[in-house]
Amino acid sequence: MPGSAQIISYIAALGLAAAIPGPGMTALVARSVSTGAVAGFAMLAGLILGDLFYLSVSVFGLALIAHSWSSLFTLINWAAALYLAWLAWQFWRTNPQAVDIAQKATKKDLASAWLSGLTITLGNPKTIAFYLAILPLVMSLDNVSLPIWGMVLVPLTVLILFVVGAVFILAALKIRHFLSSAAAQRILFRSAGLIMLLAAVGMVAKTF
Predict the structure, then answer these.
(1) pTM score of the predicted model
(2) Which domain holds residue 116?
């Protein structure tokens, strides 16, 4: 089992990485403002599930195979960058209306929010690069057992991402009244689109 110092290092690294605004957290704030807390937490669930997928892939070594095939890893980066660029375009061209903050999210809104969170994370290979970089600080990937993965890494990852995501959601709700106008919504969505576009450009730049 990993020691307390290793666990604290993992918590600190993951918490800091999650707290730095990126495509996921930016979209989470936009969704929370436009559709409310329930939809925000639905998107957060999707984001966390995507992280757990990449965590599992990293732990059990499949990512090491992809990483050793540089051409495949480059292709993944390009595909993910194109996806993020498409999301950026969707955010930028959105023509939002003023938000009725009293309106509750529908089941369709919740399903859309969850799927968006999942696809944003899965479309970002930087997530798997993070786990490949930080996990060796916690333990040897060659010696990871199923109990360590299921009883230590998964619960810690879920807890950290939930806490950080909840802070973003609650902060968005605090200022939701001020961001509910169509003009504010347009600025928010275009800001999210710009961040996603920059993330896509950065991913492509790393392949050269």
Answers:
(1) 0.67
(2) 4-205
